[in-house]
């Protein structure tokens, strides 16, 4: 609260306004008005020396800047390591609790690091170059792309916690249970495709997928989809740089069918560029651990 506001409170009260009237007039709480008037009555001023009470910080401004630099140089240090290095700059050592409090005051908090695919500098350059090459594409050009990918789903949740709201009597209610099976329940692998003109085929994959399996997908599913959805056109087919996608036999297939479908060049380590991943949003895919019969 500013000195001007405190003065307004004192002025209003000395003019005969009640605590409630003063609070309503200035948009303040009655307790605030009373506290300011109490300080004025006892000490003859609108501020109280009590506001300056409290333990003095053990770190000076210069020390706080040093602490920020310690964290900025190495974000993955533990609190004890940060404290140890900080104390090497101080005459009077401080505790880890003090360091933690100062970090929080600087809006620096310990958090679980987000996992992200490691991208090498070379591949980062290729990703940027791919974006530059395609940044001027028109909507019509993107509408000619068929996006594809393989995805794996766990049939039963085996890790983590699922919280439910229930009464004590509902402890064994099927809707309040988390189905489990022996050996984790396994997973299912699927291949699918999507384009601006609609969803492509969805193929369930069994066992380890090799290049000959991928050839079957191209011949039995991709080619018919192209002929049906893009008749008389030559769309672009997108897949990533997985070994089964870059095998020589696969490249030969695209060369043989060059008149029907073209192959979109794809930068390495770029799953985030593929819009197909969004189709597996929880909005479209049921929770397998809540709907175990989905396997059938």
TrEMBL record:
<feature type="domain" description="Tc1-like transposase DDE">
    <location>
        <begin position="144"/>
        <end position="281"/>
    </location>
</feature>
<dbReference type="GO" id="GO:0003677">
    <property type="term" value="F:DNA binding"/>
</dbReference>
<dbReference type="GO" id="GO:0006313">
    <property type="term" value="P:DNA transposition"/>
</dbReference>
<dbReference type="InterPro" id="IPR002492">
    <property type="entry name" value="Transposase_Tc1-like"/>
</dbReference>
<protein>
    <submittedName>
        <fullName>Transposable element Tcb1 transposase</fullName>
    </submittedName>
</protein>
<dbReference type="Pfam" id="PF13358">
    <property type="entry name" value="DDE_3"/>
</dbReference>
<dbReference type="InterPro" id="IPR038717">
    <property type="entry name" value="Tc1-like_DDE_dom"/>
</dbReference>
<feature type="domain" description="Transposase Tc1-like">
    <location>
        <begin position="64"/>
        <end position="135"/>
    </location>
</feature>
<dbReference type="Pfam" id="PF01498">
    <property type="entry name" value="HTH_Tnp_Tc3_2"/>
</dbReference>
<dbReference type="GO" id="GO:0015074">
    <property type="term" value="P:DNA integration"/>
</dbReference>
<dbReference type="InterPro" id="IPR036397">
    <property type="entry name" value="RNaseH_sf"/>
</dbReference>
<dbReference type="InterPro" id="IPR009057">
    <property type="entry name" value="Homeodomain-like_sf"/>
</dbReference>
<dbReference type="GO" id="GO:0005634">
    <property type="term" value="C:nucleus"/>
</dbReference>
<feature type="region of interest" description="Disordered">
    <location>
        <begin position="42"/>
        <end position="61"/>
    </location>
</feature>
<dbReference type="InterPro" id="IPR052338">
    <property type="entry name" value="Transposase_5"/>
</dbReference>
């Amino acid at each position: 609260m500013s000195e001007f506001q405190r003065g307004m409170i004192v002025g209003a009260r000395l003019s005969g306004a009640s605590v409630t009237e003063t609070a309503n007039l200035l948009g303040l709480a009655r307790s605030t008005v009373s506290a300011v008037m109490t300080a004025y009555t006892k000490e003859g001023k609108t501020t109280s020396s009590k506001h300056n009470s409290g333990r003095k910080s053990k770190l000076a401004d210069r020390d706080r800047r040093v602490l920020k630099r310690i964290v900025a140089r190495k974000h993955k240090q533990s609190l004890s390591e940060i404290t140890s290095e900080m104390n090497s700059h101080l005459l009077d050592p401080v505790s880890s609790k003090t360091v933690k409090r100062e970090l929080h005051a600087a809006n620096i908090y310990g958090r679980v690091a987000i996992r992200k695919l490691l991208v090498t500098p070379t591949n980062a350059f290729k990703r940027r170059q791919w974006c530059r090459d395609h940044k001027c594409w028109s909507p019509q050009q993107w509408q000619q792309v068929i996006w594809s990918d393989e995805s794996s789903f766990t049939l039963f949740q085996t890790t983590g916690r699922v919280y439910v709201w229930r009464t004590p009597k509902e402890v064994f209610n099927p809707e309040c249970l988390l189905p489990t099976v022996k050996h984790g329940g396994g997973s299912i692998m699927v291949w699918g495709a999507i384009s601006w003109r609609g969803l492509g085929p969805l193929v369930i994959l069994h066992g380890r997928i090799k290049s000959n399996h991928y050839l079957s997908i191209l011949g039995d599913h991709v080619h018919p989809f192209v002929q049906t959805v893009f008749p008389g056109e030559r769309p672009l087919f997108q897949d990533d740089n997985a070994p089964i996608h870059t095998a020589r036999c696969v490249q030969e297939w695209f060369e043989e069918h060059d008149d029907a479908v073209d192959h979109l060049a794809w930068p390495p380590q770029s799953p985030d560029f593929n819009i197909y991943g969004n189709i597996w949003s929880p909005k479209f895919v049921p929770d397998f651990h809540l709907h175990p019969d989905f396997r059938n």
